[in-house]
Amino acid sequence: MKYYSTNKQAPLATLRDAVVKGLAPDRGLYMPETIHRLPKSFFDNIDKLSFQEIAHTVAEAFFGEDVEKESLRQIVYDTLSFDCPVVRVEDHIYSLELFHGPTLAFKDVGARFMARLLQYFIRQEGRGLVNVLVATSGDTGSAVANGFLGVEGIHVYVLYPKGKVSPIQECQFTTLGQNITAIEVDGVFDDCQALVKKAFLDKDLNDHMQLTSANSINVARFLPQAFYYFNAYARMKEMGLADQMVMCVPSGNFGNITAGLFGAHMGLPIKRFIAANNANDIFYNYLQTGKYEPKASRQTLANAMDVGDPSNFARVYDLYGASHHAITAYISGATYSDDQIRATMRQCHDTTGYVLDPHGACGYQAIKDLLREGEEGVFCETAHPAKFKEKVDDILGIDIAIPDRLAKMMKGKKEVVETSKDFGDFKEYLLRQ
Ligand SMILES: *Cc1c(COP(=O)(O)O)cnc(C)c1O
Question: Contact, 154 vs 133, CB < 8 A?
Answer without folding.
Answer: no
